[in-house]
Design goal:
mainly alpha, 204 residues, single chain, elongated
Length: 204
């Protein structure tokens, strides 16, 4: 079984028969490759590793709690409130095949359309807990050098997301998405199910 979607096959939400000559493909990434996933991990892991070191120095139990929080958020809450809105979530199979949460389970139904206010609040609250929790233990341990490195890694990660990934991502529901209106409309023209869901959300 492939780790990623077949690049020669259109998305389940797309009305086209193939991807040949698709003008959307030059602006958005519908099919991810191993290098996309590897780049994401290289950007995301430094902050998580530094956080784990800082917390572990204060006690294994604290590190275990943080690990549960990380898995619960990225493997559960984020999937429910954000990923389930993404066209990739509509693909066959029980797990995601994308550049960020590759392999994560899909226990909920696909829900095209934007996130609700509650979902956005939970999304950001979860991020705050996951990335804020380590600060407490870095401060308690007076690990100022490690703390500075952690801050740089976290800021670098999110800036890299914004500049390198979020401007090409087709999950328009995500609060971090930076795809402009015209490019969204081009995608919606080829993905009518997504377009209908977004229009319905505006009308209600």
């Amino acid at each position: 079984m492939s780790l990623f979607l077949d690049p020669k096959k259109t998305l389940e939400t797309c009305r086209e028969e193939d991807c040949a000559g698709c003008e959307v493909a030059s602006d958005l990434v519908c099919h991810f490759r191993l290098r996309d996933f590897a780049l994401f991990l290289c950007l995301a892991l430094p902050a998580l590793i530094l956080a784990a070191i800082g917390i572990y120095r204060q006690g294994l139990g604290y590190a275990a709690v943080w690990l549960v929080l990380v898995i619960g958020y990225f493997g559960g809450l984020e999937i429910r409130v954000m990923c389930s809105h993404c066209p990739h979530y509509a693909e066959p199979g029980r797990s995601l095949k994308c550049w960020a949460n590759n392999g994560a389970p899909k226990p909920w139904a696909f829900r095209p359309g934007p996130m609700s206010r509650l979902e956005k609040a939970l999304f950001f609250a979860g991020l705050a807990v996951v990335y804020g929790y380590p600060f407490v233990f870095l401060a308690l341990g007076s690990s100022w050098g490690l703390g500075l490195a952690y801050v740089v890694a976290v800021v670098g990660f999110f800036l890299s997301l914004r500049t390198g990934f979020c401007g090409r991502c087709m999950n328009f529901a995500c609060p971090l998405n930076r795809v402009a209106g015209p490019r969204r409309e081009a995608f919606f023209r080829k993905n009518p199910r997504m377009a209908e869901a977004w229009r319905a959300s505006i009308d209600t």
